[in-house]
Structures are given as structure tokens and as C-alpha cells.
Design a protein that fits this description.
This protein is an alpha/beta fold. The chain is 30% helix and 39% strand. It is globular, with a radius of gyration of 18 Å.
Length: 240
């Protein structure tokens, strides 16, 4: 599982706020929630948006650097979000306690082992209340083969410049090569993502009592027939 280090401050500026707001709007369409957990929350942007509407919101992330950014904003703006420093590969969260768990921005694709994917889904299912929702997204094979293969982007923002390269390592792995150039220093990190078939994910969802309530595909301008990302909304079966 990745843990952003020096890159955390800059990553927070690279992801547009509109993405999180749109995701929150989608979540709100499915109902109201009392106790929310955002897995791989990063600097907490989605948590803070959801806290505007809901009482209890928590965020969990492996990166202490990301959580420091989140906590600073949390305290300065008196948001009241709880943050947990924990690795998705070794989830230890309270059972039967959340009515919504989210995991956005293809965070599950950073999980290296299929067994860990299974354990995460199992843990999420155990932690959801009956009829609670699990909302997440994953990348597809088309994304690997066509959208990011030999991808290169270089852009200058207000206080730094970044270079982002993505290459296909093999049929199911891509490597992100990120370089940040600022007045003070330069930073470089590499991250791997692993592509899992929808059928495998859906088998684990079914195995651990998560019913697919909605499934939405996102398409890239390269092809309007083959999706690059899949969004899931899953509901926890009632316990007997």
C-alpha cells in the first residue's frame, strides 16, 4: 500500500475539489447517513465535504503526512472529523458501526495482493450496519491499455511544477512516476497500481453479503464503448 511522503502537500493540490463534491453529491442521492468512514482518505477533502451534512465522519489513511494536512485543516476550521492512521491491508475497524463506507479515486487498485482485496471487502462488510452502503471505484483493463500507457503530463501551477508519467509494467500493473519541482526542493515518488477484474471483485462482494445496488461506468474520450473506471454502490445484507 502506498504512503505519500514529501509529495503529500502537492498531491492535495493536484486533485480537483470538484471531483470530491461530485462524489459527495452521488452519495447523497442514495440516502442519509449517521456514521461515515472514508478509507484511504488522503488529506480528508471528501470527509470535510460530507461533514457539512452529517454528524459523524471519520477518515482512515496510511500516510501520516496526508493525515497531518487533514488534521491541520480539521483543527483550524473546527470540523470535528476523526482521523485514523491505518493500513488498508490490515484493517481493524469497529464491527457493525458504519452506515456508509467509501473508498474513492481507485484506492483499491493500490492493493498488491488479491487476498488483501478479499480481506478488505470482508472487513468492510463486518463494519457496516445492516443495509449500510459501501461506495468505491476501480480501474479497468482498458484504462491500462489505452488511457495511461506511456502517459506523460507536465504542468506548472502556482508554487510548483509537476511531471507525471505512467507506464504499463505488464497486463495488470501500471507504474506512476511523479516528480515535483518547487523553489525549495524537488521530490520524486513511484507508485504501482494493480488491475483486478470486475468478476473477481463482484465474487468477493457477494461472498461477504454486499449486494450491488448500483454500478456505473466512466468512459474516456478515447472510446465511448469501453469503460476506464467502474463505480460501485453496494448494500450490506441484513444479518440473520
Amino acid at each position: 500500500m502506498i504512503s505519500y511522503q514529501n509529495f503529500a502537500y502537492y498531491y492535495n493540490k493536484l486533485i480537483p475539489h470538484d471531483f470530491y463534491q461530485d462524489y459527495a453529491n452521488k452519495i447523497n442521492d442514495y440516502g442519509n447517513y449517521n456514521n461515515i468512514l472514508d478509507l484511504a482518505c488522503g488529506s480528508g477533502t471528501l470527509c470535510f465535504i460530507l461533514k457539512n451534512d452529517y454528524n459523524y465522519v471519520s477518515g482512515l489513511d496510511l500516510s501520516q503526512e496526508m493525515l497531518m494536512i487533514a488534521q491541520d485543516y480539521n483543527q483550524e476550521n473546527k470540523k470535528g472529523v476523526q482521523f485514523i492512521n491505518q493500513d488498508l491491508n490490515f484493517l481493524n475497524i469497529t464491527k457493525n458501526s458504519y452506515d456508509l463506507i467509501t473508498c474513492t479515486l481507485d484506492s483499491l487498485n493500490y492493493i498488491e495482493q488479491e487476498k488483501s482485496i478479499m480481506e478488505i471487502i470482508k472487513s468492510v462488510s463486518n463494519s457496516l450496519m445492516d443495509n449500510g452502503l459501501f461506495c468505491f471505484d476501480i480501474l479497468t483493463d482498458f484504462y491500462v491499455d489505452n488511457v495511461v500507457n506511456d502517459y506523460y503530463q507536465c504542468e506548472e501551477l502556482d508554487d510548483f511544477e509537476y511531471v507525471w508519467k505512467v507506464k504499463k509494467v505488464d497486463n495488470k500493473i501500471i507504474k506512476h512516476d511523479l516528480t515535483i519541482l518547487s523553489d525549495d526542493n524537488s521530490y520524486h515518488e513511484e507508485h504501482l497500481q494493480f488491475i483486478y477484474d470486475e468478476s473477481l471483485i463482484e465474487n468477493y462482494l457477494n461472498k461477504y453479503d454486499l449486494i450491488i445496488k448500483d454500478k456505473e461506468y466512466e468512459y474516456n474520450e478515447l472510446n465511448d464503448e469501453k469503460p476506464s473506471r467502474v463505480y460501485y454502490v453496494c448494500q450490506r445484507r441484513e444479518r440473520k
